[in-house]
Amino acid sequence: MPNVFQNLISSKRVFREIKMLSFFKHDNVLSALDILQPPLINFFQEIYVITELMESDLHKIIVSSQPLTPDHIKVFLYQILRGLKYLHSARILHRDIKPGNLLVNSNCLLKICDFGLARVEENDRSRKMTQEVVTQYYRAPELLMGAKYYHEAIDMWSIGCIFAELLGRQILFQAQTPIQQVNSLISF
């Protein structure tokens, strides 16, 4: 993780992600095995987090010429749902589920990664959450419409979009702007 102390927002994001990676213990969620200490604390600019080796991600597989059988799709979808159930049981909203954040190895083991935008779901509904989460193509309609309060359904919408992408080998709703994205959802 380079330039971790570039600004306060990126520092908080990195801290939150490392905290979560250290907590996670699930077959389908990436976890930190170790964190390397910097040699000189005064020149601490990067953090090295050791995780299990994953050779690829789901995006690279989708855009490749490698055949995807119905069994592959079932195995991938099952693992995504298992990992997400674990996160949601811990009241964690990932908020950026997309094929590039789903790591895969040569045995078809899948792990959810990239927790920089993840948040613990609040019981306090007076606290607004940002709508600028989730890559636009996988963003739930309520986020596109400006919702400030949401729950795990936004992650489930993203998984539905990924499922369709696995089947069709292309992004289901691909627009340039959030307004165009809403229009493509309506006209689908």
Description:
The structure is a single chain. Helix content is 38%, strand content 10%. The protein is α+β, with helices and mostly antiparallel strands and 188 residues long. The protein has one domain (54-186): Transferase(Phosphotransferase) domain 1 (Transferase(Phosphotransferase), domain 1, Orthogonal Bundle), CATH 1.10.510.10. The strands form 3 sheets. The protein has a 3-stranded antiparallel beta sheet with strand order 3-5-6. The chain has a two-stranded antiparallel ribbon with strand order 1-2. β5 and β6 (110-112) form a beta hairpin. The radius of gyration is 17 Å and the shape is globular. It comes from Euroglyphus maynei (Mayne's house dust mite). It catalyses: L-threonyl-[protein] + ATP = O-phospho-L-threonyl-[protein] + ADP + H(+); L-seryl-[protein] + ATP = O-phospho-L-seryl-[protein] + ADP + H(+). Keywords: ATP-binding, Kinase, Nucleotide-binding, Serine/threonine-protein kinase, Transferase.
